Amino acid sequence: MFNTISNNSTHTNLIKHVCGILFIVFSFFYLYFLEGEFISKAQYVFSKGLTNYSIFWGAVIITFVLRIIQIPIQNFLKLSDKFYSFTYTPSILLLAMLCDLCSIVCDKESTYWSWLLFFIMFMVLCAIFKLIKYLEKTIYFNNNSKSLSSTLFTNFLILFIAMLWCGSCHNANEVNLYEQKVDRLISINDFDAALMVGRKSLNSNIRLTNLRMYALSKKGLLPEHLFDYPQYYGIDGLLCISDTDSIYYRIDVIDICSYLGLKKINYIKSSEQLFNELINTQQLSLDSLKDIEISDSINPNLLLPNNIQHNNHIKEEKRKIDDYLLCGLLLERNIDKFKTYINEVYGINVNSDSIVPITTLPKHYREALVMVYPNIDDTIMIKKYSEYLELKNQYKDSVIYSNKTRREYGNTFWWYYDNPSITNK
Fold first, then answer.
1. pLDDT-derived band of residue 143, with 50, 70 and 90 as boundaries?
2. pLDDT at 55
3. CA distance to 177, 223, 233, 412, per residue, from 331 (Å)
4. Among candidates 132, 118, 322, which has minimal Cα distance to 238?
5. What percentage of the chain has pLDDT greater than the value 90?
6. Exposed/middle/buried for 4, CB within 10 Å: 0-12, 13-18, 19+?
7. CA within 20 to 30 Å of 239's CA: 16, 33, 183, 221, which one?
8. At a CB cut-off of 8 Å and minimum separation 6, what does 246 contact?
9. What are the two backbone dihedrals, phi and then psi, of residue 384, each rounded to the nearest 5 degrees?
10. Which of 365, 363, 362 lies closest to 330, judged by CA?
11. How many CB atoms lie within 10 A of CB 268?
12. What are the domain boundaries of the chain?
């Protein structure tokens, strides 16, 4: 009898520990990898940006609390070993409710109908608990006759079904997850990590594209890696002026406009107006540079550090605006206007030495120039373009051409220019 009691106690402890470990692992990974970004955004919205959420420690703390909640439920229900894992279902239900609430906060178009489902699930759980207690009172469950493997299998099955249901409540797609993560990383100035999020995915939305372009500009890499990411929205992919809901966004249109030197954007209603305003802002920068140059020419021996610093700042501001304007023209496939504008910015001269060597220009500018000037002084880019045209001419079927060339040239302006049906949504 003593051995039987000891074995039962060992089996009970084993079941409790295994179920506890499985729940902890599931809860942590679910919170950290799937729901962390949405909980972080929900906390930002609820606190109006006053507090920050640590995804790692948040997952640890929430998992710990849910595990603690299981203890009084276990003591109250006192279920047999066969149905021990049922004591974790209320915690799993709370986990699903928490994550659903955060998803609703992040998705402004969501409705609250799912809370009715949670209420129904709670009532179902209560009914199941009562049924199990009734069966345990009316039917003798002889634990000695049940093997440990059978008991573990039953508990694993219950946990698996509960976790599978909880996982199905995560209805956000990968693009929403990318958007939330990129938004958070940019807000803490981790631009390198932000640019790595979903880098190989061909799926995107307009806000995610805007954030990526902003991060590239911050790194000074916009004209170098513009087409490393899917571009489906033309010039709006750089900046969608209508998306200004700062309540839900850490980084919004106002922040990006401020970064580009635009102070008032309330009257701007379209991308065309936006870029016209950028041109005006750029002209102000040019006027400021001329004023500094005139001042330095009058007093060449008095090059004040403040003047030098201010001059560098204006040049950087002009560089950002130039990149947005030129990349906007590329996204609009406006080669003629691009040719005119890049000549003004960089002093491109095909027949003689340019102010700026063509080979030092960013990648996508060179790709566009080689289409405009076939004899441009850029041997490497001319060779690459010739190889692209040769590959393009091999495929007469447009679908086969798009798929084949995208693998090798999908990150070039050439491929974007030749595939408007794919790159325009």
1. very low
2. 95
3. 25, 11, 8, 12
4. 322
5. 42
6. exposed
7. 33
8. 252, 254
9. -65, -40
10. 365
11. 18
12. 2-171
